[in-house]
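[09:14] KT: can someone run the structure on this one? pasting the chain below
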Amino acid sequence: MTESKKTKQAGITRRSVIKGLSTAAGAGAVALAAPGIVRRVSAAGPIRIGVISPLSGDWTIVGKAHFTGFKMATDEINAKGGVLGRKFELIAGDYKSDSRLVVEQANRLIRQEKVDFVAGTMSSADRNAAAPVVTKTDKILLYPTFYEGQEKEYFPGVCNKNLFMFGPVPSQQVFPHLDYMIKTHGKKFFMLGSDYAWPRVTNQVTKPKLAAAGGEVVGEVYTPFNTPQYESVLRQIRASGANVIFYSLVGPDSITFRNLLQASGAHKDHVIWTVGDEEFLTTALGPDVSAGDYASFDYFMSIKHPNNKKFLDTYRAEAGPDAVLNTVAAGMYNAAHMAAMAIEKSGEVSTDALREGLKGLTFDGAPQGSVHMRADDHQLVLPSYLMRVRKGWTSAEDMFEQAHVVERAEPSPANCDLPL
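[09:31] RB: done, structure tokens below
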């Protein structure tokens, strides 16, 4: 299909976004320490941070936004003199969009490059690969991605005192908007997701909340990665009488299904609510396929918050005038600034100091609004935005319009032995 000029964004076309999306997934000024805090004399060298990002391979486009979000915050921190008189120095660990290489990169950064702490990984699988390494070496991992939540049976990937979570969990991303979706579009939900932990656990914890709100699940299907056709799924959706398709397919599978839904004519009979399709994937879908659908995250480029304009202006100075970013880039930005604040507050650079400094920390400069790190379970308290895709959108900034907002979405307590 010929691509129109209006669907080219961030120096990339819809085709290049599709090519750059993986079939794996997880699926917002530095505040200084209070006067009078005694700080130890700092070492002369930089504070070294290992950033584990997929800078090549299937995840390249999203991975570059992931890395740039952290780098942008680092540049802001260093422009103000760094932390304790020391600059942040980033050492990239490209795991080439392959979770199997995360362990290699985490070990290299910690054992060879001698980084002080680590930030990044993209999906839950990536995080779970890095977690045993940071646990064994006693380093902190700052994880930026929306994910399924913490269950102690999955330690050390979660419920881990060395991990801090900067992306939303279902109780933040989904629960605040259930009443709105039921009242606006109907109570019958068909759950469709890729067959791995994030969609399954998200749906598992959502179903009781949906029932309590008066909704019901009329179908539930999980499909393998790289499913070539969805005719049987479409038949099940049509037969179910669903009002809302609650949707967690990822990467190219999302594009395949959404195009087939549009071609079948069934799109007009159902509303899609996705918890995975952010700016990059919606760019790949295009306005004709995506218009009228809903997405919910803690951050969108189009949110109307005073912090967001500064964030976008700074990001584009770094990545280019038409650059696209997403919730994970915002998570990395917040992680860098909050790490700097934690070190400043603690007065030293060590795992214990960073861990204690992050607990209970509030960052008012986040692009999505003020955020707060809970001390007991290391989960960030975030705003939650439910957005509708605009008809005829032309760029990532006019792609979404606000439908429902919760300015402070308190996550359900992690199912861990607390405090961590």
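[09:33] KT: thanks! The chain is about 35% helix and 20% strand.
[09:34] RB: yep, looked fine to me
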